[in-house]
Design goal:
The complex is a heterodimer of chains A (431) and B (306). Chain A is α/β, with parallel strands linked by helices and 431 residues long. Chain A has 13 helices and 18 strands. In chain A, the strands form three sheets. In chain A, strands 1, 2, 3, 4, 5, 16, 17 and 18 form an eight-stranded mixed sheet that branches. In chain A, strands 6-7-8-9-10-13-14-15 form an eight-stranded parallel sheet, with helices on both faces. In chain A, a hairpin with a 4-residue loop joins strand 1 and strand 2. In chain A, helix 2 packs parallel to helix 3 and helix 6 runs parallel beside helix 7. With 306 residues, chain B is an alpha/beta fold. Chain B folds into two domains: 133 residues, Aspartate/ornithine carbamoyltransferase (Rossmann fold, 3-Layer(aba) Sandwich); 152 residues, Rossmann fold, CATH 3.40.50. Chain B is built from eleven helices and nine strands. In chain B, the strands form two sheets. A five-stranded parallel sheet of chain B has the order 7-6-5-8-9. A four-stranded parallel sheet of chain B has the order 2-1-3-4, with helices on both faces. Chain B is globular. Chain B starts with 14 loop residues before the first helix and ends with a helix. Classes of the chains: A alpha/beta (431), B alpha/beta (306).
Chain lengths: 431, 306
Amino acid sequence: MSESLVFRGVRAIDPSCGLDGLVDVVVENGVITRVGIHAAAGAAGEHVRVFAVPGALLVPGLIDLHAHVREPGQEYKEDVASALRAAAAGGFVDICAMPNTRPVNDTRAITEMLVAKAKALGGCRLHPIAAITVGQKGETLTEMADLKDAGAVAVSDDGRCVTSSAVMRHALEYARTFDLPVIQHCEDHSLTAGAQMHEGSVATRLGLRGWPSVAEDIIVARDTLLAEYTGARYHVAHVSTRGAVRILREAKSRGIKVTAEVTPHHLLLTHEAVLGYDTACKVNPPLREPEDIAALREALADGTIDCIATDHAPHGAAEKDVEFAEAAPGMIGLELCVPLLLRLVRDGNLTYARFIDALTAAPAKVVGLPVPRIQEGARADLVLIDPDAHWTVDPSRLRSKSHNTPFLHQEVRGKVLATFASGVPIFEASP
Amino acid sequence: MWTHRHLLGIESLLPSEIQFLLDRAEGFASSIEKTARLRGKVVVNLFFEASTRTRTSFELAAKRLGADIINVSPSTSSVIKGETLLDTAKNVEAMRIDAIVLRHSASGSPHFLAKRTHTVIVNAGDGAHEHPTQALLDALTMRRHKGRIDGLVVAICGDILHSRVARSNAILLRTMGAEVRLAGPRTMMPPSAETIAAGVPGVTIHHRLEDAVEGADVVMMLRIQTERFGVSCLSTLREYSRTFGLTERMLTRAKSDVLVMHPGPINRGVELDAKLADGASSVILEQVEMGVAVRMAVLDTLLRRA
C-alpha cells in the first residue's frame, strides 16, 4: 500500500474537467480521492505526506508525444533509464519513444523490449512509436497490427519523411485499419538536400545551405489531402512554419482528422540563434523566422496546434562539438519544457488551461492514452510545479545523459517540484 | 589599430582595420624582397579542398616573410581514416606551430577551430561563407587603379549562392562605401540576397547582366562550377554564357575605364569572353599578384602580434 498524499492549498489546473482553483487534493492508494476547498482538513498521520508550497501548481501528469530515447543502439547519448529519469524530472508521466534507433524500431521484438524494459524500471511510462516503413526507408509498410499488439501507440518515420505519395496513402489506409495514428516528419527531402538551417537571411549571411519553409508546407498540404481522402488519423510532428499552420487551420475547419504538435524551441528561438554557428541550435526542422514563431504561438493558443511535444533529441559531444555541417540536428527538451514555456503563460501568449491541455489531454487523445485528470476516482498522475522558482540550467542538474541545449547555463523561471505516477513519486526536486 | 587574433572573415573587421591591412599590403606590393620578419614562425596550410592558387599564394607570402610553411592536405590522408577536423587541427597544433591557414568546405569551420584551438587561424575559404584574403586582394587591386573604394560601382556576377568570394567582397565593398550590385539567374541568388553584406544595406540584386554592368567601375565575374549544369540550377553552358557571360559588347555599357576582375580559375568563353580575359580592361593577373602582398600583410599582422 502506497502512502497517502495531501496537497494543501495548491492551484490545481485541469482544463479537461474545467478545474482551476485553490484546493486541497488527497491521494490514497494511487487514486485521487478528494478534490476541494478544505478537502484535506484533518488529513494527517504516519502514512500521509503533505505538500504545502505557497503558489504551487498541481496539474495532471504530462505526456510527451515526441522523445528520442536512443535505445537500442546509441546508449551513450541516452537510454531508457536515463530518458525516463529526465522525463520524470520534467513532469512527464508518459512519453512516446520515436523509432529512429539503431536498429530502427520496425519490429515487434524491439517494441516489446522497450515496453518490458520501461516497465521493469518503473517511474515514467514509455509508449513506443513504431516505424511506418521497414528501416524507415519509405518503401515497405511495417507489421502494424503486430506492433500495436506489442504496445506501439502510433507509427512514424520521424527524422525521415514518407515522401512517396503512394506509400503515404497506403500507410494511412493500413494504419487506419488498426486504428493507429500516423505521425509525419514533414520534409520534402528533394528540397532540403544538404540543408543546414532555415533558408533565409541568416543562412545567406552564414553561407549555409537553406531548408526552405515550403519543403514542410508541401508535405503538410499533400498529407492533409491524403488524410481527408483516406479518413485516417494524421498527426504532424514538430510544426515549424506559418505556411503549415495556415494549411492545418484550413484542414481542421473542414473537419479533416488532423492533429499537430509544436516544440518549445520552435516557439522560442529564431534562425538568428544560429549566428556564430552554434551547433546546439541546429535542429530539424530548423529554427525559423519571427513571423513563424508568432503564427505557431497563435496556433497553439487557439488549438490549431493541439500539442506541445519536446522532440527531446540527445546527442553527445562527438555529434555537436564539430563544424556546423557535420553536427547532428536536435536538442534535449524533456527537463526544460515546463520552465521554458511558462514564460509564454507569464507573457500572456498562452493561458494556463491551454498550456496544460497541450501537454496532457490533447496528446493523450492523439495516441489514445487515458486522459489524465484531477478528479475524484482518477489515477493519481500528478505534477507539482513552482512557477516562480528560479534555477540555472547546469549540466549537473540534468538527468539526461546529454546536455545539448542552447539554454545551458541560462537562468529559467519555473521548476517541477515533484512528479507522481499512480500516486507514487517518480521524481522529487532537491530543495 | 589591430586587435584580432585571427582573420576569420571580413564581417568582423572595421573600416579602419580593412584600411590598415590594405595599406600594409600596398607596402609589401611595392617591394617583394625576401625578409626575415617572421623568421622562426611556422605556418601550416591546412587545405581540405584543392586550391593551387590560394595555397601557393599563402606559401609564397610566408616564405617571403621568412616563415616556415608546410602544406597539409588531409583529403588524402587522415580524413579518409575518419579523423575529425578538430582532431586534425589539434594534431597539427601539437607540433608547435604558429598559425593554421584553413581551407574547408564547411561554412564556419575556421570560427569553430578558433574557438577550440589555441593557434592563430586564417580563413582561406570556408564553404559558401567567406574568403577574406580574396576580398582584400580584390580591394587592393581596385584601389591601386581607382585610387579609392568609396563610391565605386562594383558588379559581381554569377553564382552568388555558392560563392564565398561574393560574400566577402560584398561585405568589404559595402563597409568601405562602394555600391554593390549582384547579378545572376534566380537559381543562383540566395534568399534575401540584399542582406548578404552582413546586414550593411545598399546591395542591389539584378537578374539581367546589362542592368548590373550599366555604368560600373568594376565588373567581377565569378567562376561558374560546371557541376551546376544539368542539376536544375542551370540548363546549358551555352545558355549561361549567352545570358550571363561577359562579352565585349556587354562591357561597353560599363564606364570606359572599367576593370574586369575574376577570382580564377577562369572558364574561358563561359562566364568571360576569352578576349576580355586578356584584354586591356582585365586586371586578373594583377589580382593574383596582389594576393601574395595581401597574404603577407595578413600573416605579418597576425604573427608579429601573436
